[in-house]
Structures are given as C-alpha cells and as structure tokens.
Design goal:
single chain; 256 residues; alpha/beta; 10 strands; 24% strand; binds adenosine-5'-diphosphate; binds magnesium ion
C-alpha cells in the first residue's frame, strides 16, 4: 500500500530523515513512534506529497508520489485521508459543513447525496447529534472524532493520523484509539499513525516502527517490540532517564 525507499530529508542544515525505508501492507495499522522532533510528521507530509524528499522514493500503491505532476497528485491524494494533530477543523464552519467540505470541493455529488454521506460518517464516529455545532463548541475528543469522519468521507484506502490522542485526557484518548481500530477494521482501510505516546501506540498497532536519529531502528509486531534488546527502544518504552536518549544533555539539565 505504501513504501518508503531510502528516504532522506533535511531542512536547511538539519538532517531529519537519513535513509528511512518502510513497507506498509494493506489493512495494517502501522504505528511509527519517535521523540518529538524526530521527523514523524515529516514522514506523513512526504507520503501526502506536501513535501518532496531530497533523495529516495515514496510509493502509494503503484504511484511514485514524489514524481507525480500536480494534477495527478491531487487525484491520488483523494485516496488518502489525513487526521491532523490538532484536528484542523475550520472554525467558522459547522461540524456538518467541515465534514462535507472534501465532498463539495473534490466531487460532483449532489447536495442531498453529500448530506447523506456526511450523516453516515458522523454516525460512525458518534457525532450525529453535534452536526450543527461549531468546532469551538466541542471538546478535544469530539473535534478528533469529527476530524476522523472528515478523513473518511472520500472512502480512502489509506488514512494517516498525526498524534491522534495528543492533548486528550487518558480515557478520551482510549476512546479515540478504539474508534480508530473499529473504523479502520470496518472500512478495511490501511492506517499509519505517528505518536510519541506508548500506551496509544500499543493499543492501535498491528505493527510498529521506531524512528530515531533519522532512521527506523526497530520494526515488528507489538509483542516483539516489548522484548526489544535495543536500548533506545527499551528506554523509550519505559520512559526512563537512563539510556542513550538525551545522554549527556540530562546531566546539564540536572546541574541547573
Ligand atoms: N518545514 C520545515 N522547515 C524547517 N524545519 C522543519 C520543517 N518541518 C519540520 N522541521 C524540523 O524537522 C524536525 C522534525 O519535525 P517533525 O517531523 O515535525 O517532528 P515530529 O513530528 O516527530 O515532532 C524538527 O526539528 C522540525 O523543527
Ligand atoms: Mg509531529
């Protein structure tokens, strides 16, 4: 479904990805974990074709994303749903209007057909009663559910989720994670989630990958991950201050 082949990406002097390769099979839920600033959102933007890599290739199905012309890229992108970290709903539009937007802009479906699809997606995420509210009137968890409905509205084959449970309280975070699982299973959609939150990662993932210093340093099923001998993975999973992550800089913090 998705392949990253030896992808390199840097911003000015800063090297963010230094040879990332990944394969995502249909109907998998891949979770990419990594520290803040490790390049997780960058990977999602590369898959969407918002960024172009400095080297390497990115495939979505048979399309090489980084080589498509603008028009074709826009077509291909309709098969990819995106849930942004802060939901990114338009504040002046109601819930219904937000979810309807991709259908209005990218299809020639009739008003009544759009209304029917929007109602169906809002029902899937349990937000049908909130359809006339504005984003500001919703809690963080509700906004996330609306963002999920919007990402699914074009029936994508792939959905990308950027830190879906960030900023949510733990119970709501679990609810959102469960919703992600049930929606992706029901719609047989493949998903790539990036997160630095371990509990959420283990709930969602059928397979995991860990991004560290520009590379995927470990990859496997959640059970294999728990048993990883890699000290970086071990430290990340335990949240310990002992280990290779931040080595050196912690001493400086403690001295202050
Ligand atoms: N458009 C950009 N221009 C310059 N630097 C960027 C840009 N996007 C991301 N970066 C930098 O690249 C690094 C990785 O960013 P990002 O992918 O957002 O990390 P993550 O999502 O893992 O927190 C960060 O150091 C960030 O500051
Ligand atoms: Mg990010």
């Amino acid at each position: 479904m998705v392949e990253l082949r030896d992808v390199h990406m840097q911003f000015e002097e800063k090297k963010v990805l230094e040879g990332v390769s990944l394969d995502v099979e249909p109907q998998e839920r891949l979770v990419i974990m990594g520290q803040s600033g490790s390049g997780k959102s960058t990977i999602l933007r590369l898959i969407l074709g918002i960024l172009r890599p400095d080297a390497g290739a990115i495939f979505f199905k048979r399309f090489e994303i980084n080589r498509l012309q603008r028009r074709k890229l826009q077509q291909v992108r309709q098969h990819i749903g995106m849930v942004y970290q802060y939901s990114a709903l338009l504040s002046s539009l109601t819930v219904h209007e937000n979810v309807a937007l991709p259908l209005q802009e990218l299809t020639d479906k009739s008003r009544s057909e759009i209304d029917r699809i929007v109602d169906e997606k809002l029902e899937l995420v349990g937000m049908q009663d909130a359809k006339d509210l504005l984003p500001d009137e919703l809690s963080g968890g509700m906004r996330k559910r609306v963002a999920l409905a919007r990402a699914l509205v074009l029936e994508p084959e792939l959905i990308l989720l950027d830190e879906p449970s960030a900023g949510l309280d733990p119970v709501i975070a679990s609810v959102v994670d469960e919703l992600i699982i049930s929606l992706t299973e029901k719609s047989k959609v493949t998903s790539i989630t990036v997160t630095h939150e371990m509990e959420s990662a283990f709930r969602i993932a059928t397979r995991m990958a860990m991004l560290y210093e520009g590379k995927i340093i470990e990859e496997g099923e959640p059970e294999e991950f728990k048993q990883s001998k890699n000290p970086v993975v071990g430290q990340f999973l335990s949240g310990s201050t002992e280990g290779p992550i931040l080595e050196g800089s912690l001493d400086a913090i403690r001295k202050k």
